[in-house]
Amino acid sequence: MALANVLQSESVDFSNYGRKCRGFSSSLYETELGLESVGGDNLSFAVRTACSDGDGPERKIQFLHGTTTLAFKFQHGVIVAVDSRATAGAYIASQTVKKVIEINPYLLGTMAGGAADCSFWERLLARQCRVYELRNKERISVAAASKLLANMVYQYKGMGLSMGTMVCGWDKTGPGLYYVDSEGNRVCGDLFAVGSGSMYAYGIVDSGLKQKDLTVEEACDLGCRAIYQATYRDAYSGGQVNLYHVHSEGWNRVSQSDVLMLHQQYQNLTDQ
Amino acid sequence: MFATQVYGDNGKMKEYHYTGPVEHRFSPYSFNGGTVLAVAGEDFAIVASDTRLSEGYSIHSRDSPKCYKLTDTTVIGCSGFHGDCLTLTKIIDARLKMYKHSNNKCMTSGAIAAMLSTILYGRRFFPYYVYNIIGGLDEEGKGAVYSFDPVGSYQRDTYKAGGSASAMLQPLLDNQIGFKNMEGVQHLPLSQEKAVQLVKDVFISAAERDVYTGDALRICIVTKDGIKEETVPLRKD
Q1: pLDDT tens digit string along B82-138?
Q2: Is B123's CB within 8 Å of A10's CB?
């Protein structure tokens, strides 16, 4: 298992205690992970998954969730735009989260859902991509990278991981954009918006993409505007808009704009 | 001293009224309160915590600080479930020693932060109920603060408050250190004296309004000359 393999070699093995005590109700996962259920003893430390009733210990501990992220392909590559708010329940834990994870100089991954889940698995993906490069003496394709990620999290399906990510890059076949999530979905597409504010972002991008042949600047403005509108209406999105552009030479960070500044900017535009 | 479902979200007591016999599930977690704060300056870092250890309506100890020294340039503050705090700090100490023996050098603050992230994520399905904040100096000697969530998501900040009174402290820090949402204000860099005074003021305010924060404040100031500790009394009620 990816998780056990990565951590076992590096960490002192305190994990045996935890493993014995974890009695998962679904036996399918028990055998896969090599866990034994707590025999004889009626105490069960079964950790409920996020979808079950709210009194389990997982609900007391609030993980960082959040967000609006979007990515779309256009003539000159892929635009990736994200907000930067992380919430723990109703508390805004941070307004400066980096939701675009730089896997390598030509692949980007976005973060939506559980912050730790996204950053951990995408960091692991970066390692796998590097190993691929070393073994095969060529860069990994976006399709292969997204497949690696999808397969890694599929092993944990149903156990409560929360991850909705877009793998964006440029490979031999041109611009690549895949949506991968912890439910096991992996879809190729031209436009995706993920997160609590995604519906608002879709509205803006869909109307802006109607006119074909956007220039790089127009596409960047569209991405920025879409995230801004999502932060305007979605309480769980906000902070800053981080914008990246992926092209044939790799990705580069276009801008980071505070939503308050954008608000004044767009306000001035409408007033004029 | 088993924590039962009498404690609702966040460890705060639910309203007590008799509803008939209720089956109580054993919970492996308990909420022991406490607040931690870290501030990064130009060439220093401050990690401060209160020293109250509580559970439900009782106070177990008035002298249980939540800052732990890791290396000469790094201090960690852990609040949440005290049992997990102790185990986690022991694990980190062990890993630091292992690193020192294998690599013949001390771990840097950034490396400790990255390592803690994977340690926490290793228990993704039975998390350490600990809110961590690491404060220290980076390789260039500048102050660095890394804040974590219980499963290992982390980022570098300039200042961060964690624990029971974090929601009260963070807005105050946003205003005084971050100058957030203030117009026409000169952004002055934070001096060490001003930062220490701010930390003291902020904890005094937290002790006024949060039941789990109080008794005393332990401040660890990390500079290139080492780690200095200061203790300041707070409200004991």
Answers
A1: 999 999 999 999 999 999 999 999 999 999 999 999 999 999 999 999 999 999 999
A2: no
Lookup: tokens for A23:
């009695």
Considering only residues A252 and A6, tell me which one the structure prediction assigns the higher pLDDT: A252
Q: Do A161 and B124 touch (CB under 8 A)?
A: yes
Contacts of B94 in chain A (CB under 8 A): 12
pTM across the whole model: 0.81
Distance from CA of A148 to the nearest CA of B (A): 20
Print burial letters for A20-36: b (CB count within 10 Å at least 16), e (below 16).
ebbbbeeeebeeebebe
| Topology of the domain comprising B35-234 | Glutamine Phosphoribosylpyrophosphate, subunit 1, domain 1 (3.60.20)
Closest partner residue to A7 (CB to CB) among B122, B155, B167 is B122
- Nearest to A73, CA basis, from A192, A187, A248, A165: A192
At A204-241, the pLDDT tens digits run 999 988 777 889 999 999 999 999 999 999 988 999 99
In chain A, what residues touch B152 (CB-CB under 8 Å)?
116, 119-120
Q: Is A60 on the interface with B (CB under 8 A)?
A: yes
Distance from CA of A98 to the nearest CA of B (A): 8
Query: Distance between CA B85 and CA B143 in Å, rounded?
Result: 24
A67 carries an active-site annotation: yes
Q: Is the pLDDT of residue A23 over 80?
A: no
Helix, strand, or coil here: A91?
Answer: strand
Domain locations along chain B: 35-234
For the question of an ipTM over 0.85, the answer is no
